[in-house]
């Protein structure tokens, strides 16, 4: 399909050039001859198609990067200063990393350790975590629990619970969450009663709305300073981007 698009673009370019040189529309016979010549040329030089595809892909990538930069700039206050997302790392760091995550997402679990190593190796990064449960009811249940813990028991309890949830394999159930909460000595009756509260719903809904504005369709998704990074990134790539941001 991409080859066809690139070939069509190439034909359009050649046709435009031919029209500009002639300054008069082609006749049907001239158009048929022109198409035959272009077809023969492409068969003799198929590498031209790949060159056109590469140019097209590069342009699309550049356009996507610019579009993402514009999205981050347009919604910066919601991304960096929402007033409710958990903040870790160095709150005064010169680099801000925002992560949209789902506790049932395999790549989020993988990224969790990478992000922890990044923060441990670099003391000047502020981390903001946003709950984005998109993988079904278990994901929603886990996020409601985590947010309720944060709102009822505070940030330290949230961090402990969030780390534990990232290590859970398979579905997350309410009995399992009760056991987890009891392990950390949390007030589970109060937390469980708060899980379906308007406050928890409002926080998760606001993050979902923001994700929609940023055209986020999967997790993990990161915002690193002004840049939107879609998908898992290994530690070395994150470190390289951080170094680049610092100039």
Structural topology:
Elements lengths: L1 H21 L5 H17 L2 H28 L1 H5 L5 E4 L5 E7 L4 H16 L3 E7 L5 H17 L1 H12 L7 H10 L4 H7 L3 H16 L7 E4 L2 E4 L4 H12 L1
Parallel strand pairs: 2-3
Antiparallel strand pairs: 1-3, 2-4, 4-5
In brief, what are we looking at here?
Helix content is 65%, strand content 11%. By secondary structure, the protein is an alpha+beta fold.
Radius of gyration over all CA atoms, rounded: 25 Å
The overall pLDDT, averaged over residues, is 88
Proportion of residues in β-strands: 5-15%
Q: Shape from CA axes?
A: elongated
Number of helices: 11
Helix content: 55-70%
Unreliable residue stretches: none
Highest-level CATH class of the largest domain: Alpha Beta
Spatial strand arrangement across the major sheet: 1-3-2-4-5
CATH topology descriptor of the largest domain: Glutaredoxin
Q: Report the structural category.
A: alpha+beta
Question: What is the rounded distance between the termini?
Answer: 39 Å
Describe the structure.
This protein is of the alpha+beta class and 247 residues long. The chain folds into 2 domains: 2-74, no CATH class; 77-246, Glutaredoxin (3-Layer(aba) Sandwich), CATH 3.40.30.10. It is 65% helix and 11% strand. It is built from 11 helices and 5 strands; from the N terminus they run H-H-H-H-E-E-H-E-H-H-H-H-H-E-E-H. A 5-stranded mixed sheet has the order 1-3-2-4-5, sandwiched between helices. Helix 1 (2-22) packs across helix 3, helix 6 (137-153) crosses helix 9 and helix 6 (137-153) packs across helix 10 (198-213). It starts with a helix and ends with a helix. The mean pLDDT is 88.
